[in-house]
């Protein structure tokens, strides 16, 4: 599934890393990014932990763009 991050909405709470540490990393200021890329959209395996991270982001800074 394709995930989009919206850094402008991120409040640097760190919750997404708790659920999906293999996916989400942070800039020095704590704002979300994907590991190993500065792209804001990424195709990733559909996992329950990743869905939890998206669902539980308190500000809607993570979106699922499509379900395959
Ligand atoms: S859960 Fe949402 S607000 Fe918190 S760090 Fe991740 S993207 Fe940012």
TrEMBL record:
It comes from the Bacteria. The keyword Ligase does not apply. Its cofactor is [4Fe-4S] cluster. Pfam families: Fer4_13. Keywords: 4Fe-4S, Electron transport, Iron, Iron-sulfur, Metal-binding, Transport. Residues 1-29 form the 4Fe-4S ferredoxin-type domain. InterPro entries: 3Fe4S_ferredoxin, 4Fe4S_Fe-S-bd, ET_Ferredoxin. One of its GO terms (molecular function) is iron ion binding. The keyword Chloroplast does not apply. Ferredoxins are iron-sulfur proteins that transfer electrons in a wide variety of metabolic reactions. PANTHER family: FERREDOXIN. This is Ferredoxin. It comes from Lactococcus allomyrinae.
């Amino acid at each position: 599934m394709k995930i989009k991050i919206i850094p402008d909405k991120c409040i640097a709470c760190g919750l997404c890393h708790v659920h999906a540490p293999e996916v989400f990393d942070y800039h020095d200021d704590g704002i979300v990014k994907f590991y190993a890329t500065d792209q804001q959209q990424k195709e990733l395996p559909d996992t329950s932990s990743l869905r939890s991270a998206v669902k539980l982001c308190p500000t809607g800074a993570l979106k699922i763009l499509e379900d395959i």
